[in-house]
Amino acid sequence: MHAEPPGALVASIAWNAGNGMITTVNVWDTPGAISDFYMERVLPQVQAEGEPANKPQRHGEPVSVYFRSS
User: Fold this and answer.
1) I need a surface site. Which of 1, 6, 41, 45 has the fewest CB within 10 A?
2) How far is CA 55 from CA 10, 21, 32, 70, in A?
């Protein structure tokens, strides 16, 4: 990351999945926050640099998650 994470990003976990691939799990406040992140930070990079060789794949639709606050 070259900038501070977006405020709506609750958690981001990444690990080496083998074969040169990285797998990540990102937890966002809302599905709309993901869209905002893409439009504000990802799309300008794609427009400047072109489409990436490997695109992220979603493994299911977003679900509601509850985190107990302290």
Assistant:
1) 1
2) 22, 11, 20, 37
